[in-house]
Amino acid sequence: MKKRTLLAFMAITLCTGMQAQTRTVTLYNDDLKCKGGRYELPTINYDDNTVTISADTVINATVVIKDADGNIIHEEKTTATQAETTINLPTSEQQDKYVIELYYDDKHLYGFFEETEDKNQ
């Protein structure tokens, strides 16, 4: 019985370690024009196949994801709220590096992210 429990624990630990690690995209802007005082940036997280966007305030944004060569691989209009909006990266277009751009109001934000999974495994 102890061996089965140990094997089950090891299997769960191994599977948990194999899951994709979620990372946060740092957002940049070239010329931030915002009216009023406080300005909150949306949060963008990613793992190997998925990008999630959330914001403290509701924003209606156009999201553009480009590959390292500047080719658009995904574009959509979405509403970002505190609940995460999920974008699945097209599996046929998966590259190592990406640029994500957000356009809303008079703002243009962008950030960089790259695939975290080792393709040789």
TrEMBL record:
<feature type="signal peptide">
    <location>
        <begin position="1"/>
        <end position="20"/>
    </location>
</feature>
<protein>
    <submittedName>
        <fullName>DUF3244 domain-containing protein</fullName>
    </submittedName>
</protein>
<dbReference type="InterPro" id="IPR021638">
    <property type="entry name" value="DUF3244"/>
</dbReference>
<dbReference type="Pfam" id="PF11589">
    <property type="entry name" value="DUF3244"/>
</dbReference>
<keyword id="KW-0732">Signal</keyword>
